[in-house]
Amino acid sequence: MAVKYNDTAKTFTLQTSKSMYQMKVDKYGALLHTYFGALAGEQDFFYLIGGREHSFSGQPGDVGDDRDYSLDYYPQEYSAHGNGDFRVKALRAGKKGCVPALDLRYHSHEIYPGKYSLPGLPALFAGEDEGVQTLEITLKDVYEEFYVKLLYGIFEKAGVITRAAVLENRSKDTWEIRRAMSVNLDFLEGNLDIVHLYGKHAGERQMERRPLCHGITEISSNRGTSSHHHSPFVILCEPGASEDFGECYGAALLYSGGFQMQAELDQLDSARLVCGLSEEEFLWTLKPGESFAVPETVLAYTDKGFADLSLCLKRAYHSHLIRSPWKDKKRPVLVNNWEATYFDFNTEKLLDIARQAARLGLDMLVLDDGWFGKRDDDNSGLGDWYVNEKKLGGTLKALVDKVNDMGLKFGIWIEPEMVSEDSDLYRAHPEWALQIPGRIPNRGRNQLALDLSNREVVEYIKDCIDRIMESANIEYVKWDINRCIDNVFSAADPSLSQGAIRHRYVLGLYEVQEHLLTCWPNVLLEGCNGGGGRFDAGMLYYAPQIWCSDNTDAIERLRIHYGTSFGYPMSAVSAHVSVCPNHQNGRVTPFKTRGICAMQGAFGYELDLSSLSEEDKAEAGRQIQVYNENYELFQYGDYYRLTSPFENHSYTAWSYVAEDKSAASLSIVYTDLYANAKPVRIKWKGLLEDALYDVEGEVYSGAALMHGGMVLPQPTCNYDSYMVCIKKK
Predict the structure, then answer these.
(1) pTM as predicted
(2) 128 pLDDT tier (thresholds 50, 70, 90)
(3) Rounded mean pLDDT of 459-488?
(4) Distance between CA atoms of 474 and 399, rounded to whole angstroms?
(5) Measured between alpha carbons, how far is residue 87 from residues 25, 57, 133, 237 in Å?
(6) What phi, psi does 659 have (nearest 5°)?
(7) Element counts in the chain: helices (H) and strands (E)
(8) pLDDT reading at 372 higher than 90
């Protein structure tokens, strides 16, 4: 059994193939967190807590003069504001008009087969026969009829545990929620490093690692999306942890809006991690009988280092998070016209690109921004989702039919969450935009955000999507958003708590995307937020791939891909070959290198194929052939980071290995050149030691390749690259 309850010791022990997680109801009814780590039997780990008096750490009111007991330093499973704990909290709530205060104690529990669900929110799922169990523990405030249901999904085979919380107001009073986290994870020993992914537009998910220091380390976004700047994913690890060794604890929040992850190292060198909603402007009102679900967090543990943690998350996401049928189908090699034409296109330009795509063996043409309304630049037209037939020279269906006749699928770009002030929609419904009455609105990319907390707006967007999808044979949708969300005021019902709008916006987004996928279940949805500004695990529930960054430079993408790979499957990384000099930084790299870098993810092109040289066309043909021949390896294989672009400035190397070890690939991009250079030797990972592998006509054992390595060709030009694919004999 994945969940074991000991009624005598009052312990809950959760076990997966990789980890064990334990809680205990103590003598006062508090739910304490006693263990999370390697499999260690069913010992009651309460003995490790070692309660004793610590000055200026008080006691809850009902424990009397038991000075050895304080929730200010005891490890808790779900901390709340108001019970004497002065560390970062999981929950702050109280009756409206009163001081927020809670003292949560164990009330009941239930264990049942299968996985709990969170209506309207992304969450891991499981079939009835997959051996997944749910533990539901209900806590109750000592003084009020306020309850918290702690939900645990135990994925024994996948090696992960999910956490969520549902807040329930069973009283006769209205309550206000001011802070809501799904996870409170306490560590008795806080000698840990924190690994997180920071960045900016065109430089997302840069990996940073540092020791956890006394005080509070916060990774968060208040931008309305998970953002380019921080990812809702962190790793806490022992200081000596590496790719192949050491304890690592991963936490990924399944949410696409503002979030907050805080790690505190306290007075006794213990650590606490909390993950949940951003408390920026957050205020959720719970009327009598209402409940509120906090988005889910996925927890993973390994004692085998970062590579094993990443593989654990990748496999769990593939089996239990990504729902799209495209996760098991070959995704199209596509060309997007954006960097080829920007807004300056007509049907003939698009068809020229399509003809060349068909000749080279591509699968799809994607029409990006500028096909709708009055949209010749980024200053107008958003919200007017009708085809600009003058620009296209006819209907969208006529264009799509011509592309389909060439043997290509057709995809389209939309940005339905946004509105331009110069648009028919805004002129008709200015109250549908998020803006503060009486103030000139803040703009981003000269556009405003629609109020997705407004039912009328949600239904309007659904209707627009329906009309677009019904108008032609569209098999791929790139869903974009190109500004941060601020000036958050909803005119729909000013009497409602305005502090709820940011979360209601995200719920509205999820509802619209669920509508799209329900009505067109076979469409390939790609997420985008000015590149990688909404690259989070929550979005993978709807979109199996996400445009990783607007930065298409192959060398900068090495760092972006490297950081992304720690917490997300590389199959979700949408990566394209673009023109040089690169449009973002002016760098010139070989066409071969651009292709090898882009083959790390969902592969495609972002340039005018019709203007390529004959040499580059031939290279594109080779790239497409290699990608198609090794598609299952790139899509489903285990990804290994062989070097770090943050530490090794000479080259970056990575590999894919099939889960059955029958095939593998190794790629390297040289990022610096040296005279009289020493040989570059790379050791493979993940192969079978006693198997023989064919490496370009030579036979080597897996043990030789992993422990001895192989010598790679010397670079012959700036930013040269090399890829080799091998098979088990």
Answers:
(1) 0.97
(2) confident
(3) 97
(4) 11
(5) 20, 11, 31, 21
(6) -60, -30
(7) 14, 37
(8) yes
- Pick from 43-52, 172-181, 565-574, 598-607: least confident: 43-52
Q: Is 550 a residue of the active site?
A: yes
Measured distance CA(272)–CA(294) in Å, rounded = 19
Q: Spell out a b/e string for 691-712, using b for 16 or more CB atoms within 10 Å of the CB, else e.
A: eebebeeeebbbebbbeeebeb
CA nearest to 578, candidates 342, 341, 339: 339
Q: Are 249 and 235 in contact (CB under 8 A)?
A: yes
The residue behind tokens 């007075």 is 267
pLDDT for residue 302? 98
Q: 254-265, pLDDT tens digit by residue? A: 999 999 999 999
Buried b (16+ CB within 10 A) or exposed e, 218-233: ebbbbbbbbbbbbbbb
Res 525: pLDDT: 98
Angle made by CA atoms 372, 375, 380, in degrees to the nearest 5 = 120
- Which of 480, 553, 638, 720 is labelled catalytic? 480
Measured distance CA(540)–CA(518) in Å, rounded: 16
- Interatomic CA distance for residues 545 and 171, integer angstroms: 43
- Say which of 85, 368, 550, 638 is annotated catalytic: 550
Length, in residues, of the chain: 729
Predicted local confidence at residue 51, as pLDDT: 80
**Phi/psi of residue 316, nearest 5 degrees:** -65, -40
Asked whether the beta carbons of 323 and 510 are under 8 A apart, the reply is no
* Mean pLDDT within 304-330: 97
Q: What is d(CA 496, CA 494) in angstroms, rounded to the nearest whole number?
A: 5
d(Cα 73, Cα 268) in Å, to the nearest integer?
Answer: 8
In three-state secondary structure terms, 512 is: helix
For 190-203, what is each residue's pLDDT tens digit? 999 999 999 999 99
